[in-house]
């Protein structure tokens, strides 16, 4: 029996409701497999934890996480309690950086039963590979002068190493999918980082002659995800551009509540982290109406990542069937509670 | 008879076809007014001009432009002939900067007869006020090292002055519209420039207690323009975020071919510039199918800006009626040529 240790961080708001409720599905999947067992280490790190302890996680927190096989996260942040830059940089972004989760992957695909805001969603299915360690999300910069003379300077830092590994990952993924890769750029307006980004992309494209590549400026690409999302396969983007494109991906799917994300560690030193795209939605907590699909879809990504693709496939089928049968939460136009959705998926997997 | 001097720059690609063809509409509007006359100074500055002269505009070009009352531009750029950073920074962005067009305004509204990709566009009508002089579009930055050690650093520069004047403009506009203003931020990920942006916004919000304000992170806001565009009135954004949001605005309208933009000079020293959002589309040149609506809508913005709101209103009604009657180009699902659309609008204005 192989033991797999999962660090479980429910986090804030609806994360606290959804995450614990989904663990029984993981247990059942392990039973079906027969060869593995999940061990959960649950951590209460969150904005409320911060209010009590003055930190988002304890000193030895990172070491604990780093010893696990994967991190299963709910949602972080509740600006009414703690400013975002403290909660996010003290937990979510801190884990991404210190566990060297240098790549963020977010799929977007048309799901039957989820009403897309698009009149003709045309069965789109694309995947954004986002640089997750640097770029526009940088602590380099600051301010000078005050009052009417004040200036804020923000540095975006793009290294060859991070740019190249992100793109290489995307090229490899495109290889396994439809062989089509789009790079998000803005080299016509942003004249240092983005021409560099384009140059690395062109160099790598030479190494992957079988992949059909194109570069789109971020403004045009954002528009294309609305006007023709079915024309895209893999998209590779910087940290900020990936952030924007993946929320758009969630929007065209029809709900931020179903979108999943994987923060991938590439060097094998530390665990990867799996989190839904949605936030903590403190306004709907306690009502039992939170949508668990984003969390469960990210669990599917975690299973795939752990080499348990069969279980991942089983879970994903159960998710899709459940939605198609109309068992869905309010945000998807349904009337089911969070628990009803989870129980339905659970029952499907069991049977 | 008041003479108004317009600098006319058709630019590249379809700009060359559309711009000259629309001037007769301006002439007819002037005739209707009776009190004004447009004088056109046409300049051939473009990528082809660059290939011949090695510059996008001659040395005395800017002075000529600066002496006119407004600049009426088609489209700039043709990467097959000249790299974008040369053509755009040598003409479009150069004019924006040297004519101190510090604000860019782009409306997006549901137009009857233009098929929105949204299933329920709900008559949205919002307007993006974009900072147009600094921010993420900055020449500050560079590279160090080479090969696998190479690093590109891009500085985004936010001054109090530019940030405040952009926001103030947006607050004033919101005052004249529905009194609702949304600020595009990303202070949870971008920790120097965006918290500064938020701070200035909050300070100004205190000065405009009647305006209902909110801040949305750019990722969420991009998604909202797809899921609920009718919930927005005025949006204020940095140079990059404004760029992305306005292409999204064009996308939800249903075509980049109809979206207009105004680059506004605030200090009265230099002219403002009016340009459609679409590019030069060199692939469709010569076919007569280019959509003139973006150009004509920007002409309406120019008329409004010149204090000729009645003529602007007349033109806009003619545009909307023409589209509603089904006289539209291929990109809008119609079968009319560019000239047929222009002639139809022209005839409507005349009658
Ligand atoms: C061409 C490009 C530099 C420009 C910009 O990003 O400003 C364009 O996208 C626009 O929005 O006018
Ligand atoms: C909360 C925020 C810092 C984060 C990000 O921008 O990375 C979120 O939007 C995401 O995409 O995971």
UniProtKB/TrEMBL annotation, chains A, B:
User: What reaction is this protein's catalytic activity?
Assistant: (R)-malate + NAD(+) = pyruvate + CO2 + NADH
Entry keywords, A to Z: Manganese, Metal-binding, NAD, Oxidoreductase
Answer yes or no on keyword Metal-binding: yes
Q: What Pfam families does the record point to?
A: Iso_dh (PF00180)
As cofactor, the record names: Mn(2+); Mg(2+)
Does the UniProt entry include the keyword Phosphoprotein? no
Q: Which domain of life is it from?
A: Bacteria
**Isopropylmalate dehydrogenase-like domain boundaries:** 5-345
Database matches in InterPro entries:
ICDH/IPMDH, IsoCit/isopropylmalate_DH_CS, IsoPropMal-DH-like_dom, TTC_DH
> What are its E.C. numbers?
1.1.1.83
Q: Which GO terms describe its molecular function?
A: D-malate dehydrogenase (decarboxylating) (NAD+) activity; magnesium ion binding; NAD binding
Family, per entry: Belongs to the isocitrate and isopropylmalate dehydrogenases family.
Q: What is this protein called?
A: D-malate dehydrogenase (decarboxylating)
Please report the organism this UniProt entry assigns to the protein.
Halalkalibacter krulwichiae
Taxonomic lineage from the root: Bacteria, Bacillati, Bacillota, Bacilli, Bacillales
User: What gene is behind this protein?
Assistant: dmlA
């Amino acid at each position: 029996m192989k033991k797999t240790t999962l660090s479980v961080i429910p986090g804030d708001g609806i994360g606290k409701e959804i995450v614990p409720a989904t663990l029984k599905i993981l247990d059942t999947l392990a039973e079906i497999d027969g060869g593995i067992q999940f061990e959960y280490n649950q951590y209460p790190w969150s904005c409320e934890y911060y209010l009590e302890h003055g930190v988002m996680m304890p000193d030895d927190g990172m070491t604990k996480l780093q010893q696990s096989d994967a991190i299963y996260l709910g949602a972080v942040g509740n600006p009414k309690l703690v400013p975002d830059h403290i909660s996010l940089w003290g937990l979510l972004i801190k884990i991404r950086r210190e566990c060297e989760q240098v790549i963020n992957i977010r799929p977007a695909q048309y799901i039957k039963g989820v009403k897309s805001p698009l009149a003709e969603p045309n069965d789109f299915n694309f995947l954004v590979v986002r640089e997750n360690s640097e770029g526009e999300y940088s602590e380099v910069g600051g301010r000078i002068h005050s009052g009417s003379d004040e200036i804020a300077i923000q540095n975006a830092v793009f290294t060859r190493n991070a740019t190249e590994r992100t793109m290489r990952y995307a090229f490899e993924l495109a290889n396994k999918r439809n062989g089509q890769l789009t790079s998000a750029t803005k080299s016509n307006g942003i004249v240092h980082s983005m021409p560099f980004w384009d140059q690395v992309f062109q160099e790598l494209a030479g190494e992957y002659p079988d992949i059909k590549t194109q570069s789109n400026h971020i403004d045009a690409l954002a528009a294309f995800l609305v006007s023709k999302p079915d024309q895209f396969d893999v998209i590779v983007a910087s940290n900020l551009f990936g952030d924007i494109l993946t929320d758009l991906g969630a929007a065209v799917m029809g709900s931020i509540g179903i979108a999943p994300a994987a923060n991938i560690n590439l060097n094998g030193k530390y665990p990867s982290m799996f989190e839904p795209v949605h936030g903590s939605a403190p306004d709907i907590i306690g009502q039992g109406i939170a949508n668990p699909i984003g969390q469960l879809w990210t669990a599917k990504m975690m299973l795939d990542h752990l080499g348990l693709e069969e279980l991942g496939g089983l879970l994903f089928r159960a998710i899709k069937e459940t939605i198609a049968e109309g068992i869905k939460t309010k945000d998807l136009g349904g009337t089911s509670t969070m628990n009803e959705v989870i129980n339905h998926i659970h029952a499907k997997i069991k049977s």
